[in-house]
Amino acid sequence: MLLIHCPYCAEERPETEFAHAGEAHIERSTQMGELTDEGFANFFFYRDNTKGITYERWRHIHGCGRFFNAARDTVSDKFLVTYKAGEPKPDLSEIDNQTKAGAKS
Amino acid sequence: MNAPVSIQPNRIPGKGRLSAADPLRFTFDGKTLPALKGDTVASALIANDIHLVGRSFKYHRPRGIVSAGSEEPNALLGIQRDVARHTPNIRATVQEVYDGLEATSQNRWPSLKYDIGEINDIASPLLSAGFYYKTFMWPRKAWDKVYEPFIRKAAGLGKAPVHKDPDHYSSQHEHCDVLILGGGIAGLSAALAAAKNGARVIICDEQATFGGALHFDSDVTVDGMDGFSWAQKVTAELAAMDNARVLLRTTAFGYYAQNYVALIERVTEHLSAPRADLPRERLWEVRAKKVIIATGSIERHMVFANNDRPGILLASAARTYLNHYGVGVGKNVGVYTANDSAYAAAFDLKEAGINIPAIVDVRDNPNEELLAKASALGIRVLTGHGVMAAGGKLRVSSMSVAPVNGGANEVIAVDSIIMSGGWTPSVHMFSQSRGKVTYDADKSRFVPGVYAQDCVSIGACNGTDNLSATIDEAIAAGEDAARAVRHNAKQSATAINATGGEAWEGTLIGAAPGAEAGKVVKAFVDFQNDVTAKDIRLAVQEGFHSIEHVKRFTTNGMATDQGKLSNMHGLAIAAEALGKDLPEVGLTTFRAPYTPVTFGALVSHSKGTLFEPTRKTPMHDSEVAIGAVFEDVGSWKRAWYYPKTGEDMHAAVNRECKTARTNVGMFDASTLGKIEVVGPDAAEFLNLIYTNPFLKLGVGKLRYGIMCREDGFIYDDGVVARIAEDRFHVTTTTGGAPRVLNMMEDYLQTEFPHMKVWLTSTSEQWAVIAVQGPKSRDIVSPFVEGIDLSTEALPHMSMAEGTICGVPTRLMRMSFTGEMGFEINVPADYGRAVWDTLYQAVEEAGGCAYGTEAMHVLRAEKGYIIVGQDTDGTVTPYDAGLGWAVGKKKTDFVGIRGLKRPDLVAEGRRQLVGLKSVDGRSVLEEGAQIVDDPNQPMPMKMIGWVSSSYWSGNAQKPIAMALIEDGFNLMGKKLYVPMANEVIEVEVCKAVFVDEEGGRLHG
Amino acid sequence: MAKPLKLERAHPLGDQNFGAPGISITSVRGGYRCSLRVAQSDISAVSNALGVDLPQAPKTSARSANRVAMWLGPDEWLIYDSKANPIDDLKNINALCSAVDVSHRNTAIEAKGPLAAEVINAGCPQDLSLEVFPVGACSRTILGKAEIVLYRAKADTFHIECWRSFAPYVFELLRTAARDQSALAVR
């Protein structure tokens, strides 16, 4: 069971309090009805399914109830950072170095 | 129970730490034997001079006790407390004896000494590695009937218990700063250092007493006392501290992400008469900030011919039996070694009066001091020699010794052989933590390399051999861990002074002399899975070059002992056969569990009524009282139908349906999902969520709404009531409640965060009683205050607040039956009382309660859909004939774009229609496929399927709904439903079977 | 004409309780609850109406007489009052908020005694040590397969809220864990 840092509760909480909610930073068009077929396909169907760092949504469903975003490495299954919904993608270069420094050799 | 110690032939008076004043009795294969309190089954059996304890997995070879710990591959017994408490495959070296314990040997018939399955040993040339893969491939059909039953009968170890487990198991989450795995000198030192510096500490060890190697290593003195006594003193000190938790008989078996470690504590396995309220085992799910791994090392066996004969065991095990249990492993004990540790064991045995005919050392030049001591004790040492084979069958009787470089054999009579091929650091937990091991070529061993988690290895499992270095490493680890977590705690230094415990030199991995390539001998690498050195070479010869493939082909290291003894040997033999260096071949990954764990402990509380929540409505008990039969709907129990005496389900449902249409029926609709949507933008929000328009819905009005996903397919439906300008009462399907709320929250929080709206689940705030039928108003009105129930004041699809039976209600005039009806929402604690009151009135009026089955029939008679039954995630509102519910003028709602997708606007989509059986009596099967031409060749083209089907008592005929290609254009057409024994002819019709005009709704 | 009736609230658990050395598990009858959502701008107005300052730090609560305001999320509180319905104080408030009466949706169970935290930890994965979950701390979390709101009223007393249909499960899990922990503690 992972620990996930909830940016609203400001602490790490057990994974079972959370629900995964798919890829992050996919914006719904304000002109939804006018979207082209391709635009709709990109919005609804196509996902990156990244090997490596992925940006994804989680909901602290059995906690504060908030949706938030996370950057997670799908290879190591480690969360690099979590941040509130609506905030831009964080700069990971610094976080990545910290993570590497944290591992002893 | 007063068995004199004297009748335990191998118990040595004055040796060991058990007290002769605590005698116990147990049975082995029916024979009663004496033991002492603190014995394991293994130590007690050896005390009684019993080494033969089982037959091997594949060849049925006689097998004995190899070790004195959890690494034991051989001595697996059935342990029985009583008829209902039989556990197979328990390691005799781990199971403590309690008075009355019954142990039985396994995998033998008719008896341990005369086992028919032994034929496999003679036929072993046919049973080499990969035998099953090669032999049982063809014909395919024979697998189920011949091969598998044969293999299952012949193989396998213990017998699974037949009775339901009468015990209970406990589990709990626990958090700590520092978790220490292993209670040897390293673990205890680290725990002491961490606890003294303010850390919340947990230390666990799988054994009944702390001490680890101090159980056998009698040469160690710590702080002026013998090592084992020191361990007990420190254990007591830790147990007395508020910030330390000491867990004995507790195995750390799984190391998961972010220092999440699973421990299993055996609570009652050692007790003669455990209290009934005690759980048998407790699962600890520990989250630690720091983990200190102090799991020690495991001695390896020597891989030589017939090294599996009973009486042959690890040198350290023999020393444990002697120094801890006071048991000699034999009277005339041969020693075969490549490592110094066997000398220490030999010396202890010799000093206890046991004859040591020879120490056979494969090394040419062992440590001079050891040779001198051996000489002083009068022990013959044969350096540069190997044991070519062990003699004897049910018990080792001799060892055949020859120089390693060739020469004449000498046969030496023995009744036991102790052996040491060196020590393997226990990197299992480190490896489970995803750490990467590194190869220490000097000492031919893998040690922790790159760490993946916040943990540290100390002592023998870290390749630290020297005692004082181990203690320094342990204290530093404990202090560092504590200070990293407790920055502000008062610092306290720990000093521990120890002497003795010389580092042992020497190692041999792979086959010993005499079992090299080309020798046709049975030199076992993996005792439990019967894998020999030859099998591993064969695997390489047959083209398996990856160690992971060799492992799976030979099954080396895949038994319940996870290759604790065999992995390194197997790897070395494979490397040699491949002509590669050992680290190039690589170690296989260790996986949880470290030792076997019971299902009981893993399941823990989650069984019976606690398997999952069973949800009941507030009226449940009243429904039970009037004879309801219940069905499971998700986690809910819902009243299915209410049979009167003598009625079957069909009769009850027919009566309930008829009564609801002709008189009055009442129905428990409490499980419907309910969401209170509040805020100035509430209407705007619902307008975006539902396909329907909501802006103009008046206060006090209801609207049936459909909600789609963005792809345009129906997601849920329900009735929405406007309570106030800024407040709506939304209902969802029973099963859809959580996901609808989640979807609404998702849009609200992430797509429409500017909207001032809040959502609250009120599903369980309200009990809901539907009263339906021509007499429904007569039933309800006497109990209602503050609401005019007339059609003029409260027409169909409207609601009002007031009281019923004196309690507040949201009373809705609505119908899921097609009859005039009301859905009465009352605060849930009042639900049962209101139900009882109304039920009395309904019954007096000749009405009845109806269940979910009648509800389904009544709505199908009207063609009302049930989402998830008549839709399957590929049905649009248009497909379901509900296009009227899509707001044509809306510029946005969830699904607006999806509904314009080319596939969704194409001709010929499956559409929801009604079906009549042409014969007027065949009730179709739900899920049945529909074809246009029943005489077409197979495979037929299926043009749709039946989604709902019932006998309608009201229409006096079968009714059905179906999704059929281009269904709306097929009205009146004959189609066919091919079934196993017949083809049913059906006619497409509108999905309305009763009151097509809908006049009854309005009363 | 309406027939005069006087209906009593029926508690989903009735009068169930369980006691063993070191722990008692008791169903808490009645009580009033309000699910409260408030815009940041209107927190003080709503606090004034309720007579308790809505706490704004995660996992904290505020208490005034019989009323406890528990922080559940950034704009969400559960108000519990053992005597009076808090919704009555919010009926005519002119503030940007959502107050929904959930008195009957939830029910409460009290776990009390030195073993209370360990008993709850049988199903709750949070760290309930006093350092991490001090007196007054509260959180929506899980207990086994049910969602609960956990509030630490005293060092050895937890108030556990759950939805009413989950109450038999939650009570039974707590009762079972209480039996186990009590037995294990006095081995």
From TrEMBL, chain A:
Domain of life: Bacteria
Any single biological process term in GO: tetrahydrofolate metabolic process
UniProt-listed InterPro entries: SoxD (IPR006279), SoxD_sf (IPR038561)
Record-level Gene Ontology MF annotations: sarcosine oxidase activity
Protein name: Sarcosine oxidase subunit delta
Source organism of the structure: Ahrensia marina
From TrEMBL, chain B:
Domain (GCVT N-terminal): residue spans on this chain: 619-890
Domain named SoxA A3: residues: 522-602
Pfam families for the chain: Fer2_4 (PF13510), GCV_T (PF01571), GCV_T_C (PF08669), Pyr_redox_2 (PF07992), SO_alpha_A3 (PF17806)
Single GO biological process annotation from the record: tetrahydrofolate metabolic process
Domain FAD/NAD(P)-binding: residue ranges: 177-456
Domain Aminomethyltransferase C-terminal: 910-995
Keywords: Oxidoreductase
SUPFAM superfamilies recorded: Aminomethyltransferase beta-barrel domain (SSF101790), FAD/NAD(P)-binding domain (SSF51905), Folate-binding domain (SSF103025)
InterPro entries: 2Fe-2S-bd_N (IPR042204), BFD-like_2Fe2S-bd_dom_sf (IPR041854), FAD/NAD-bd_sf (IPR036188), FAD/NAD-binding_dom (IPR023753), GcvT/YgfZ/DmdA (IPR028896), GcvT/YgfZ_C (IPR029043), GcvT_C (IPR013977), GCVT_N (IPR006222)
GO MF, any single term: sarcosine oxidase activity
Tree of life domain: Bacteria
Family of this protein: Belongs to the GcvT family.
Descriptive protein name: Sarcosine oxidase subunit alpha
Lineage of the species this protein comes from: Bacteria, Pseudomonadati, Pseudomonadota, Alphaproteobacteria, Hyphomicrobiales
